[in-house]
Amino acid sequence: MSAPRTSSNRPFRGGRRVSAHPAGESGSLALPPDRARVLLYAAFRPAAFALAVIVVAMLATLLTAGSDLTGLSGAVAAGWLAVHQVPLTIGTTTVGLLPVLVTALVMWAAAREAVAATDTDPTRAEIGWLLGAAAGGPLLITAVCLAVTEDASGSIALQRPNPLAAFAWVLVLHLLAAGTGIVFRCRERIFDLLPYDAIAAAYVAGRAALRLSAASAAMIVAGLVVHWSQVGDTYGGAENFVDVLGFTLLSLVYFPNAVIAGVGVLVGPGVQFGDASVGVFTVVGGPVPAVPVLAAVPTGAAALWWAVLLIVPAAIGVYAGVESARVSYDRPAAPWALLAAAGMGSAALTALAALAGGELGNFGRLGVELPIFALAVFAWLAIPGYAGLLYARTFLVSFPTPLLRHPDALFDPADDDYDDDRDDYFPGYPEHVAALPAGKLPELPADTATSADRYAGLLEQPRNEPVGPQPPLDVEVVDGEPAEPGSRPLSDSVESETEIVDAEVVEPDPVDDENSDRR
């Protein structure tokens, strides 16, 4: 049995101590040196990596363009703000359509640092210190970048953005990344506090959102293949290999933005390119940025067969309902997990759509109409999903297989040896019932009721108590196993016999005859 975990024996992650001083668990804000070092890593290491990449990219851009390095500081500051989705104004042109891919990479690095800097059971003081550090470092760099952009406005045509908007974007993104890392690290503890339907809904929503994004990416790639001649025309303005490489990299970093816009086309509302728009049923012509990834945007009238694309979100919604039937306790009269999954999937994709869209100079706003997009995604996941739930409950799944095992179960899912011998402890016990959380055992037939009672009773025993058959009390145990007869050392036998010889024999007192007759 492992020793109880205290603040002095918590594990290290990445060679750095992740626990706070014992006083921190009692509510004190004391910060030991090792914890301060970890918080410095969380505050500045992701930001330092991002700044290093931005500096290299800006240097390469200025050198290949034949420009001097006088505007390097302003370009680096603008790059830091653009990575955090802060709209920029260059001259009279507003650039609010910024690549989501770079922002996602920075958030991933910040979340990974938060995972490495926290423990599975952190205190409130530890969480507060970590969130403060994760947001404080980037906010400090943002303040410096805002000052640099104001000083560099004389050498480059870059206006200082709104400081309140800049600080708000940086604060929200880094708090979200750090919070995601903490939740991932403490997921077992959080799962114990959340209702199981919420966990199942998040699982179904995440997979449905990924399927919609994958279908959109496949549609865009197919469109690029069909319009390959237009893709070649976008490279017509390239004068050398550097320009071709720049167009290609620009298309790659904006590809996730195009994927989110493609989801808007799949679910029905379509996507706007300023005055132009593209949907399943209508296409309105207009100017489109000359970027290779946008060569798949159709320019003619909408074809009738495009309506077939609506089968894709319908099929994804139906499968989400089937999946909800498999992993949740939804019933046709109470599809709470399915409705929660539709809401979570709609909220996640709408948030991504808000990041993926924005103003782009004279082209106007590029992106989807957020309210209509949110309602469309929810409807495609909820209505066909309910049909899939009805079908699954009627023909496929009579009872779900939950995602989680109860932490107090006697067997360890990661222990292969114990899983092989599980039938010895639960003979004839159904596999899906053995994986149920505590308190959610279903009503079983009469032949398995005994096994269910045994399982429910064994869950109440401490983990360190023996479960299997134990050796008789008169058999000696050596190294945890019963010793074979005659295997005891001779010295042990002699000592036992000596102790028996030296023992005092006490005879019982004679029984009184009167008491004997009375009995």
TrEMBL record:
The keyword tRNA processing does not apply. Keywords: Membrane, Transmembrane, Transmembrane helix. It comes from the Bacteria. The chain crosses the membrane at residues 47-66, 86-108, 129-149, 164-186, 198-224, 244-266, 278-297, 303-322, 334-358, 370-392. Residues 1-10 have a biased composition (Polar residues). Pfam families: DUF6350 (PF19877). Residues 1-26, 460-519 are annotated as: Disordered. Residues 494-519 have a biased composition (Acidic residues). This is Uncharacterized protein.
